Amino acid sequence: MNTVIVCAVVVVLCATAQSRPSKLEKEGLSGTNEEVFIMDNSLLKRGWCKTKPVKQIIRIEGCEPAEIVNNFCYGQCNSLYIPHYNRQTPAFESCATCIPVRVHRRSVYLNCPNAKQKRKRHRYTYVKR
């Protein structure tokens, strides 16, 4: 059995609502009971997300580790929680997250001197943006 371990400094998850404002950021937040206006959109900051390089080590049992450079995403997003007046569950909650916008598969070849197959190919997800 081949065990694949990818060690990373940061978990790779990125990109908020990219560079465009969300509906919430554009219009603000309204309630459903008689359309009570709850929050002005000027109180919301625009979410953003960027990528930075990160070195990752790919390890396969019986092979020498290989170092790759990938990208991780980071940013700031709006999140909201509005309590329900008579329940523990919220009336509304929102928590945005950074996710990749562009990814593709890449390959790395690991040297495996003591294995039958001297070089093994490992495919991984590369975060472009």
From TrEMBL:
Residues 51-129 form the CTCK domain. It is found in: Secreted. Pfam families: DAN. Residues 1-19 form the signal peptide. SMART domains: CT. It comes from the Eukaryota. The keyword Cell membrane does not apply. Transmembrane segments: none annotated. One of its GO terms (cellular component) is extracellular region. Keywords: Disulfide bond, Secreted, Signal. Coiled coil: none annotated. Gene3D superfamilies: Cystine-knot cytokines. This is Gremlin.
